[in-house]
Write a structure and sequence with these properties.
The complex is a heterodimer of chains A (267) and B (271). Chain A is α/β, with parallel strands linked by helices and 267 residues long. Chain A contains 9 helices and 9 strands. In chain A, strand 6, helix 7 and strand 7 form a beta-alpha-beta unit. In chain A, helix 4 runs parallel beside helix 6 and helix 5 crosses helix 6. Classes of the chains: A alpha/beta (267), B mainly alpha (271). Chains A and B meet through strand 5 and helix 4 of A and helix 9 and helix 10 of B.
Amino acid sequence: MVAAERHTAAGNPVASPEPGAIRVENVDVTFNEGRVVALRDVSVEIPQGAFVTILGPSGCGKSTLMRAIADLVPAARGHIDVQGQSPRNARADRNFSYVFQDATLLPWRTAIENVRLPLEVGGGGDTPADPHDLLELVGLKGRENALPHELSGGMRQRVAIARALVTRPKILLMDEPFGALDEITRDKLNEEVLRIWRETGTTILFVTHSIPEAAFLGQYVLMLAAHPGRVKEFMKVELPPERRLADRDTLEFVQITAHLRKLLEEC
Amino acid sequence: MAEASQIPMPVPAPRMSRIVDAVLDRGPALAAVAGLLLLWQGVVWFFEVPEYMAPSPVAVLGAFQDNAGTLWLNFWPTFFEAALGFVAGNLVAILLAIWFVHNSTAERAFFPIAVFINTIPIIALAPVLVLIFGNGFAPKIIIAGLICFFPTLVNMVRGLKAVSPATLDLMRVLSASNWEIFWKVRLQSSLPFLFAALKIASTTCVIGAIVAEWIGSNYGLGALIIEATFNFRSPLLYATVFTAALLAVVMFALVSFAESRFIRWKTSDVH
């Protein structure tokens, strides 16, 4: 409901319309001195507070787009704007966090110490969240002092999500965060990510190669085509923001995934 | 206490039976050692091997008893040299590894020299150092240090570089400085590599100290080995060799203990 309200607010004709959380304009990303074109002329605007899933065949540059937004790879051409700043300044200001496919926890640190890591490096954060509250939010209350090797793959990824939220970022970039998990764990975490999104109001950009995951999580789906990576479609998912796993068996949901599958075949 | 014992919970085994378990666990090893000693004693008796050629275990035991004072007196200098060499050699190796990891020009410039020094047989280097530094402790400590140096350097460089690209991406997203990456990530993830090297060094530093004592010294286990050999005091020679081995075992055990204190984690990020 929170998200819906925010959107009516964004649509109101106030003095200046609220700018998107992320604006990507005509961006090219190339590797090997321009010989490999990973992304060509990508333009997209991610609305403030939206949950956008990025879907596309392998090699379409889903991760590259995320990495360009996070200032992990430079754009060869075009312009990227994150919360009104360059990606580098947005990173320094802790405007976004990144969740990788690997949990990338430091194995010698306990769960709570891993969550605190962002506060100890790079100047920390201005208004950090309470690490204990965050572990509770991701369902790991009581496991604060567990070392990563004592946690399951799903639990480690939950710690990584808590770590990403500790700086209260405006944007959460999630790069196939559940790609290495089994389906049951993945389903459970999908529901929890939706809940976290509703509770924190964070803009989420979520890369996946699973059609149901993209449709279930996303308010919008950004479909990329491959060779070279380019925008195929940016579509709104016409489902209520409040979603349950069982909703995936409804006719509306199946129609959406069928449409996405058809689009994917055309890529 | 009586109440506690009524709760049906797995209780840790009493201390005594744990000791028994430990003995049983090491039973095969203990039996093998005892068997070999018996065999050795039997061979010496049966073939009437002269004592100067190969003393029996009983004779060696007697030498331990007769020369306890001498062994003890010569144990300390060797321990001192080995331990100081261990600390100095490893410290230099660790600092150099840190420099190499942060400065690839330095690595390319000095790593070949480190390899070259490593190829010089330590026994050939010992006289050179004795000529330069005289008969004191210095050349022994340097040789003990040199023998530790190379394995630690190589392992430490590998350990400091053994950080996954994803972790480096994470640190970059967090705007971590090189110093923070070093302090929070590289140093910790190098520890398993470092301790693997330190375990090697813990025994080789004793070898270094003894070899150095052979060249020019009138104290230490190395000097005692030379003296006992030239005087055909074979039981004392064997007793000295066992003492040196014991020293190496103690050093190894100390490093292993430190490792168990420092590293309580396992790498878990590989799915």
